[in-house]
């Protein structure tokens, strides 16, 4: 199965040989160097299938993100109770009969009992649903990460430093996964740049008004899901790169459609400091 036009579609069926190790060798010869989901009958466990997410290390970042974020949904739709084990492969050599034990992660372990299998299914369902205290802790801790590490085009910083007052630059992520300037325009203020922003896909816009820079991330409602994910995950990394290059922003704005931009160049107010008030003690009698 592969993802095409934001839909999971079947790519074909490989006739099995009756031997799981030999079937894995057949799959290795059948799959191309592209991201796919594979479902293989598990001959060792009756009624079970092996679900393989096959995404090579050198696959484009977009494909890695798309297949990683869609995997759990596909498994839930097909029925998590039908799959054991669920594995991820990023090297074609691992999809082979020689790597059978490593692939299954059994190490010669005996098949699970019915109670162990039920417990494993519950744990797998919790994982697929994003449950678990430790995972949520990690999500909270990771909120300040810089996202994807896209590279910055060599001329990007020079183009931004060269902006005159009243000029804007549209930044996009190119096919070779680099931030680059896609065009420039003129505007009198934040409220005037909506007409310069494309409405069919996400973009970043850097504007210069007065002696300062403004950053606008726009993600129109009609954008493709894949583009939304890539641009949202890359925004903080771009801001960090620009700051490291000496470009500080008076204001960072994030909107959906361009017409949501408010004509207000004032910096966002800093959050008010919270003061601690000592509670009153008990009344004296």
Structure description:
The structure is a single chain. By secondary structure, this protein is an alpha/beta fold. The protein has two domains: 2-111, Severin, CATH 3.40.20; 151-260, Severin (3-Layer(aba) Sandwich), CATH 3.40.20.10. The protein is built from seven helices and eleven strands. It has helices spanning 20-30, 61-78, 100-104, 114-128, 133-141, 156-161, 225-244, and strands at residues 2-4, 7-9, 36-41, 49-54, 83-89, 151-152, 167-173, 178-186, 203-209, 212-218, 249-255. The strands form three sheets. A six-stranded mixed sheet has the order 6-8-7-9-10-11. Helix 2 packs antiparallel against helix 7 (225-244). The longest helix is centred in the C-terminal third of the chain and has 20 residues, at 225-244. It starts with a strand and ends in a 30-residue tail after the last strand. 18% of the residues are buried. Residues 106-110 and 131-146 have low confidence and may be disordered. Residues 1-105 form the ADF-H domain. Residues 263-285 are annotated as: Disordered. One of its GO terms (biological process) is actin filament depolymerization. This is ADF-H domain-containing protein. Belongs to the actin-binding proteins ADF family. Twinfilin subfamily.
Number of helices: 7
What average pLDDT do the residues reach?
A: 76
Number of domains: 2
CATH architecture of the largest domain: 3-Layer(aba) Sandwich
State the end-to-end distance: 78 Å
Oligomeric grouping of the chains: single chain
CATH class division of the largest domain: Alpha Beta
User: Which structural class do the helices and strands define?
Assistant: alpha/beta
Rg over C-alpha atoms, rounded to the nearest angstrom: 26 Å
Note the beta-strand portion: 15-25%
CATH topology of the largest domain: Severin
CATH superfamily of the largest domain: Severin
Helix content: 25-40%
The residue ranges in which pLDDT falls below 50 over 5 or more consecutive positions are: 106-110, 131-146
Domain ADF-H: 1-105
GO molecular function: actin filament binding; actin monomer binding
Subunit structure: Interacts with G-actin; ADP-actin form.
Region (Disordered): 263-285
């Amino acid at each position: 199965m592969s993802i095409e036009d934001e839909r999971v579609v079947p790519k074909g069926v490989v006739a099995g040989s009756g031997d799981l190790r030999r079937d894995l060798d057949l799959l290795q010869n059948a799959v191309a160097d592209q991201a796919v989901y594979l479902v293989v009958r598990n001959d060792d466990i009756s009624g079970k299938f092996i679900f393989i997410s096959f995404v090579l290390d050198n696959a484009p970042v977009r494909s890695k993100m798309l297949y990683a974020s869609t995997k759990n949904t596909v498994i839930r739709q097909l029925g998590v109770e039908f799959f054991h084990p669920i594995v991820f492969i990023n090297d074609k050599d691992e999809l082979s009969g020689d790597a059978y034990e490593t692939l299954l992660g059994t190490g010669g372990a005996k098949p699970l009992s019915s109670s162990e299998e039920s417990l494993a299914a519950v744990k797998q369902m919790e994982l697929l649903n994003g449950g678990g205290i430790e995972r949520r802790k990690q999500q909270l801790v990771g909120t300040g990460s810089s996202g994807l590490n896209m590279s910055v085009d060599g001329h990007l910083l020079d183009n931004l430093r060269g902006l005159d007052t009243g000029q804007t630059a549209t930044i996009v992520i190119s096919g070779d996964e680099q931030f680059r300037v896609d065009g420039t325009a003129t505007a009198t203020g934040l409220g005037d740049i909506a007409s310069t922003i494309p409405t069919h896909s996400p973009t970043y816009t850097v504007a210069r008004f007065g002696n300062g820079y403004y950053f606008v991330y726009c993600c129109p409602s009609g954008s493709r899901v894949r583009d939304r994910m890539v641009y949202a995950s890359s925004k903080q990394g771009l801001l960090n790169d620009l700051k490291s290059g000496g470009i500080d922003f008076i204001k960072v704005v994030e909107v959906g459609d361009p017409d949501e931009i408010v004509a207000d160049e004032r910096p966002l107010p800093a959050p008010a400091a919270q003061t601690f008030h000592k509670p009153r003690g008990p009344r004296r009698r």
